[in-house]
Amino acid sequence: MSSAAPTAPDAAPEQAFRLADQVNRRPRAVRLLAAVRRHRLDLLAALVCAVLAGWVTHGLWPDPAGRTLALNPEDQALYEWFLAVDARALLGDFGLLTDRLNAPDGVNLMANTTVIALGVVFAPVTLLLGAPVTFALLAAANLAGTAFAWYLLFHRTLRARRLAAALGGGLCGFGPGMISQTNSHLHMTAQWLVPVIVWLVARLLRASDPGPTTLDGTGRDRLPGPDRRRMLTSAAGLAAAVTAQVFIGEEVLFLAAVTLLVMAISYALADRELARRALPGFAGGLAVAAGLALLVLGYPLWFQFAGPQGVADGMFTPAYFSADLSSWWTISPLSVAGSDQSARLTTGPAEYNTFLGWPLLLVVAVCAIWAGRRRLVLACVVAGLVMGALSLGPEVVLGGTRTALPGPYALIGGLPVVDGALPMRFALALLPIIATLVVLAVDRALRGTGRARRLVPLAVGAALLPIFPTPLPTAARPAVPEFVSGGHWRQCVRPGGVLVPVPLPTPKEPWPMRWATAADAAFGLPEGFFIGPYGRGGTAAMGTFKQPTSALLADVARRGDQPAIGDEQRRQAARDAEFWGASCIALADDAPHVESLRATLEQLYGPATRIADAWIWRV
Q1: What b/e sequence results for 201-229 when a residue is b if at least 16 CB atoms lie within 10 Å of its CB, and e otherwise?
Q2: SS3 of 330, please?
Q3: How far apart are the first and last CA of the chain?
Q4: CA distance 79 to 181
Q5: Which of 209 and 188 is assigned the larger pLDDT?
Q6: CB-based contact 556:562 (threshold 8 Å)
Q7: pLDDT tens digits, residue range 396-454?
Q8: Are 372 and 508 in contact (CB under 8 A)?
Q9: Which of 19, 307, 550, 562 could serve as a FRET partner for 3 with CA atoms 20 to 30 Å apart?
């Protein structure tokens, strides 16, 4: 009897260990194939997101260096320069104050939307293939990544059916506001960390909730303690996600924080018992996350607001960047059912943030009612109304006409940090809010029976169809001069030196910044397109004031008239070149009124030297 086989309970652990060992010893390819089979539907969703993103941005391919976004090429030139400067971190040549623009003062990268984290991560691509390739990749990856991240949140956190999660994720990643912001605003479309932040906040809340009161063995009330380990890991993860988002796009983080704050307050008022149980631990977890984040962000944030070339205020006028009330029920010109005539309701093609269309607004209102009296629905509705109202700015505009009716934004305008966000961009928060309501309604329908099982998904699909995105318009861009692309600039400028292109770059015409981008920002430029403290009283401004010689050359480039040059102009030209720290001045063959500019420059600096397709003056 002593040698009898072990009983079933004793054999179970041994069999489990044996099975695990067999699984671990399976070939890696077999394990990978098994993982693919388990997640094949999620992988299919990711593939669909990637294909759709590629279709929207396909105009930039197959030659990103020869194509540009037709609706906002100025900002694309700026962001490609950002990516080139960020990539220099891989070469050990990077600082929060860069000397590669606005020589000699430089540019505060934290005060500008420089997508530092993305630029550093994609530095190998930039250095090998060029910043235009990185820009095109990020333009598509931000759309696909945001859509897929929200899909995962809806499916795995809300436990929604995949169809419902896919509809919600698609709206978050490819909604009208996201498509319009893809016109060069990489810092606004990189929202794939927002679902991660939302998940970590929800995880922290669940870990902070000790659960309902129970009775112990003596009959006394006992409150189970919170899950402190999960609280700590959630807080640490939240700190890491917030830190990364600051170096991608602070405005997105600000909008997410405001939205979550409004939703948290609404949820707490609807469930006061949960608030009473979880608030102490939840607040403590947030404090830990904030403390950990500030260990990394303390100096960069100080540098942004108080460091060299930093700005402490916003530079955009809230009244100008306010959403038109009528734009909410209008369809974006970048959607299949949109019209170019509706473009007059916003400030430009990169700000169709509120153009959701009346079909979607109507269906979402019905979904919110039909989804039931759930606390999450209430929180989404309140947050949507608040963020939508704030997008109207300090004064309500209807059909292009100011109504003199004050908007809710007037209550918070002027507060620190708030002015750094454009009012109309508050509407971008509506995409995930509306998507959540859609997901809840469609998921409820799919879990039920009867007509609603088909009617609700069909109604949502019909409402989304008019705002389905169209490919972004693109155009050919002029080639960078051979003087730069062929590396001939090194004959007159040492790496890190200053090259003065003629005419100099400005916020409205930043094209010479493409020279520096093509050279991986190996040389600096005077003036340029950036945010700096050159406004009245040191306030934020776009670009800087021109030096006299720069203004003179810009006038020649604009009108073609050759001015009279005397000794005073020559002395001023020498002083300006010394101020810039210039190594040489370059005039490419494709410059406007090139002959007039060349004659003017020769009177200022003497005879020119021909290098490749440019005339240069060593100063």
Answers
A1: bebbbebbbbeeeeeeeeeeeeeeebbee
A2: coil
A3: 102
A4: 13
A5: 188
A6: yes
A7: 999 999 998 999 999 888 787 887 789 999 999 999 999 999 999 999 999 988 888 99
A8: no
A9: 19
